[in-house]
């Protein structure tokens, strides 16, 4: 084999090595880029989920406060009704006591 053929083979092998290294570097860069993009998408999804959770918690708190207010209002209404009924019965009881004392 001539020296020129050997040199051509060496140059070709070096070109292949350089192309391979360039392709490997390009692939590594692409992988790093995609990993960064994936992490950014995950972070964005995490942030969105956190915002949605905070919003739902706020709405749940608002709903719970409204339900508590309605329950308190209902309880106050029942309390007022029971108090009025008790006062009526107290008047009736006082009348019965007075009636029995007078008859005795």
Structure description:
This protein has 104 residues and is mainly alpha-helical. Helix content is 97%, strand content 0%. The chain has one helix and no strands. The longest helix is centred in the middle third of the chain and has 101 residues, at 3-103. The model has no long low-confidence stretch (mean pLDDT 93).
Oligomer: single chain
Distance between the termini: 146 Å
* Alpha carbon gyration radius: 44 Å
Low-confidence stretches: none
Continuous helix count: 1
Give the overall silhouette: rod-shaped
Helix/strand structural class: mainly alpha
The overall pLDDT average reads 93
Percentage of residues assigned to helices: over 70%
> How many strands, which pairing sense, and closed or not: the largest β-sheet?
none
Count every beta strand, where a strand is a DSSP E run of 2 or more residues: 0
Indicate the proportion of strand residues: under 5%
């Amino acid at each position: 084999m001539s020296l020129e053929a050997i040199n051509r083979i060496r140059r070709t092998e070096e070109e292949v090595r350089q192309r391979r290294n360039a392709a490997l570097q390009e692939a590594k860069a692409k992988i790093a880029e995609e990993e960064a993009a994936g992490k950014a998408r995950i972070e964005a999804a995490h942030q969105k989920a956190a915002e949605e959770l905070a919003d739902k918690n706020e709405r749940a708190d608002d709903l719970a406060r409204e339900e508590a207010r309605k329950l308190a209002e209902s309880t106050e209404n029942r309390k007022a009704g029971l108090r009025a009924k008790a006062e009526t019965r107290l008047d009736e009881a006082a009348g019965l006591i007075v009636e029995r004392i007078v008859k005795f």
